[in-house]
From TrEMBL:
Signal peptide: none annotated. InterPro entries: DNA/RNA_pol_sf, GrpII_Intron_Splice-Mob/Def, Mat_intron_G2. GO terms for molecular function: RNA-directed DNA polymerase activity. This is Reverse transcriptase-like protein. It holds the Pfam family GIIM. Keywords: Nucleotidyltransferase, RNA-directed DNA polymerase, Transferase. Residues 130-206 form the Group II intron maturase-specific domain. It comes from the Bacteria. Belongs to the bacterial reverse transcriptase family.
Length: 279
């Protein structure tokens, strides 16, 4: 790990401690189970373990097995002819660096910019988009007893959560447009089945801009499950704002709800620990 910012962040989290049932507990070793750094630290440890395992055990054995396999093919041994063995190259598979990898729901890849320089960007994995569309489709499959405003409210919650999760992602407009297109027409068919009506009359009635200057979407009025008369418009992913990530160090301890210095909290923890030990 050569990134000084990450090392500093790791050191801060290791020393931050945590709150357990309202009591601050100082950190002695490691990070809390399920913490935000756990996946990254696991990947770092497993990477080093893979490198060590390959250097100590795998490479020598793999080279020996590959040599014996290919030597048998060269000599034309009966077993190689009987099993129709094929020549094994020195490198069976090589992943291109530009393929990237998926980490915490984001695909991280290298991309060449307009200035010719390579930069790291994040995109939405195709399988994640397909799974999200499948989930929305299941929501709109049946469930015709649900009120229209409640159905749109349920869709909006899922769309808003998905847009917030990928608000820092690059090149998301195409995926958002595709999902908006699917949700729009799936909801149109759901409304048609619910009201036993063709889609065109429904669009003349409910396809309008929610506010002046905004794009058209489904805007319906009705009563929710609590009996309240409200209006709901279907949220569009393409209209969700994109955020720009900026690295910043926290000014205060995020695990402490009061405005206190860490040294004060640590000393209080020692006092509480001594008091608990004497009981």
């Amino acid at each position: 790990m050569r990134d000084g910012r990450f090392v500093d962040l790791l050191w801060r989290i290791l020393k931050a401690g945590h709150i357990d049932r309202g009591l601050f507990r100082a950190a002695s070793e490691g990070v809390p189970q399920g913490g935000v750094l756990s996946p990254l630290l696991s990947n770092i440890m497993l990477h080093e373990f893979d490198v060590w395992l390959e250097a100590k055990y795998l490479n020598r054995k793999a080279r020996k097995d590959r040599w014996a396999w290919n030597f048998g093919i060269q000599q034309g041994r009966p077993i190689t002819v009987r099993e129709n063995r094929q020549w094994k190259p020195a490198i069976a598979y090589c992943r291109y660096a530009d393929d990237g990898f998926v980490f915490l729901g984001h695909r991280i890849i290298r991309k060449r910019g307009s200035n010719g320089r390579m930069s790291v960007v994040t995109t939405i994995p195709r399988e994640k988009a397909k799974a999200f569309v499948r989930k929305l489709t299941e929501t709109l499959s049946g469930n015709h007893s649900v009120s229209t405003v409640d159905m749109i409210a349920s869709l909006n919650r899922q769309l808003a959560g998905w847009a917030a999760f990928y608000k820092f992602t690059d090149f998301r407009a195409y995926v958002f447009r595709r999902i908006d297109h699917v949700v729009f027409w799936k909801l149109a068919h759901w409304l048609g089945h619910k009201y036993r009506c063709r889609i065109k009359p429904l669009m003349r009635k409910w396809f309008r801009p929610p506010e002046p200057g905004k794009a058209k979407t489904w805007l319906v009025y009705g009563r929710n499950k609590h009996g309240e008369a409200i209006g709901k418009d279907l949220q569009r992913l393409v209209s969700s704002p994109k955020a720009q990530f900026r690295w910043r160090n926290p000014e205060v301890n995020p695990y402490i709800f009061r405005s206190e210095n860490r040294s004060t909290v640590t000393s209080r923890f020692n006092d509480v620990a001594m008091a608990m030990g004497s009981v």
